[in-house]
Write a structure and sequence with these properties.
2 domains
Amino acid sequence: MLIKKENIDTLKQKTIYNFANFLSISRVIAAFPLIVSFERMQYIQSYYLYSILIILYIFLSDVLDGYVARLSDCVTDFGKVIDPIADKVCFMVVLIYLIDKAHFGNYYINLFLLFYVLLMIRDTILVTFSLYNIFYCNYVNQANVYGKLFVFFSTLMIIFYIYDINYSIAFILYVVSVFTMIISTFYYIKDLSKRIK
């Protein structure tokens, strides 16, 4: 089946060169100095502060990009696609760092490797459904409330593990993150399946 040109053009509505999309793309770039800060903060105290500042920037840019897009009437399908991709890149980069550093408390299994595998399965399913809907149904899905809860709890979990705040609370956040991951996946699939004819 050929992809219709007009469906491809749905990704080009309005201009993609706007401040909101810049914020999304900048999060991808910020992920890499964040890893450098994580690596060096064990030896140089100032990098501890740098890592916190970068995390704050990533968080604020994630909050602001959608608001800026709506305020400036620059909401684009490209923005709807690049925003979750930027979030995912940041998340995966930090997750891989944690897998490598094995910040897992006294647990006997690599919790973050398991989390990574579950996340890859989830994303593979959602990307498959999403691409079909973008190119054949002219529909770009947006985050549901469970997806936002998943991002919130998983971000908290990662912060607790990276900065060795409290492993008991971190593990509770881990369990909640996995639960919200499963629930959000179910609702995403349910929503996307309605669009497939």
